[in-house]
Each structure stands twice: as structure tokens, then as C-alpha cells.
Amino acid sequence: MKEKKQRLFFALSPNRSSEDFQRLARLSSQCGQFGRSVATDNLHITLAFLGMVTDEQAASVVAAAEQLAAPRAFSLKLDTLGYWKRSKVIWLAPEHPPQALLTLAQQLKSLAIECGLDQESRPYKPHITLAKSVARRPEQLPPLGKIDFHFNHFGLYISKPVSHNGRQGVQYIQLGKWPLGNT
Question: Sign of the CA dihedral 93, 115, 72, 106?
């Protein structure tokens, strides 16, 4: 019998009750005119994509995350809007990511490798995907206002397939949450 696997990733989830999140949601909706906007509940910054993971691997990842000496909490200014031709997405990113974010992503990538999970070799580029399936580079992207978030925890998420109005999609559900340090 084939072992059941689940699609997991570590991510930062913006505070959904903030005004900045409302601006982010509007921007994602505006970018949807070029492709398919990302569902508001799915807006996040991936820290480490774990891929298809067995229950045993997931338990190992959670145990390792419990022992992680995470960097301090940090704020993030999202100030760069762009398009990636290869993946056909419109994204929002920090021009200058804080060192704490880069350190956390590297720690989680190393944690995944130690748990036997393959990781991409290309450099980490923190971003929020706003729209997918964008056929070609938009001539003009929507105007970008100030969007800042403060993060004091990170989470482990599962990607669950869902069907809504006959369309297939995914829903991201948080499985665990860990605090960032105070120093």
C-alpha cells in the first residue's frame, strides 16, 4: 500500500486584521485582471517548501521546528511589484529583506534537509504571489501603496485541494505555529 503524503511548507502569514492586509488583498484582486488572483486567505510568504511529505517526515519536521532557535521578530516593507515569466506570476516582495527573514528561511531549509527533504538550490527570494497563470507580462501593474507587516511567529502549512463553484484550487491550513525570538 502506497504511503499517504501531504504537501507542506513553512510560511509567514500576514496579520489579516490590519489595514496593510486590506491593501494587500485589494492589490491581489487588482492583479487578478491579468491572471487568477490568489485567494485572500492564501496570501503568505513561503519560507521553505517541503514538498510531498509522509506523516513520519512531518512529525520529524515538527520536532525539529520545536528545537529551532529562531531569529528575532521583524518588520517587513513590501515595496517591489513584479512579474516572473517562467512561473507566470505577479509577486510583491521587499527590495531589502531583513536579515532575520533570510536567516529564518535558511534555518528552515537546513531543517528540511536534515529531515531528509530535498530543497531547491536557487537563492531564496521572499515574496507574496498575488496572481497566477498570467499569460504575459502586464504593460502596467497596479499602483503600489505602502504595505508593511510585523512578524512575530512562523507556521507550518498544508496545501489541501478544494473545489469551489466547479473550479479546482487549494486552501492553506496552518498545522503548527512557532514564535520568533525577542532578541
Answer: negative
**What is the distance, to the nearest Å, from the Cα of residue 17 to the centroid of all Cα atoms in its chain?**
18
| Domains of the chain, each with CATH number or no CATH | 5-179 (3.90.1140.10)
* Helix (DSSP H) and strand (DSSP E) numbers for the chain: 3, 10
Cell reading at 21: 492586509
Q: What phi and psi values does residue 22 have, to the nearest 5 degrees?
A: -60, -40
What ranges in 32-146 are assigned the alpha helix state H?
55-67, 99-114
Report the distance separating Cα 128 and Cα 101, nearest Å.
14
Strand, helix or coil for residue 12: strand
Q: How far, in Å, CA of 152 to CA of 73, rounded?
A: 5
Residues labelled catalytic: 44, 127
Q: Are 44 and 128 in contact (CB under 8 A)?
A: yes
Q: What is the mean pLDDT of each run of 10 residues along the chain (183 residues)?
A: 87 94 95 93 96 94 94 95 94 96 96 94 94 90 90 96 78 95 67
Residue type (1 letter), 154: F
Answering whether pTM is above 0.85, one says yes
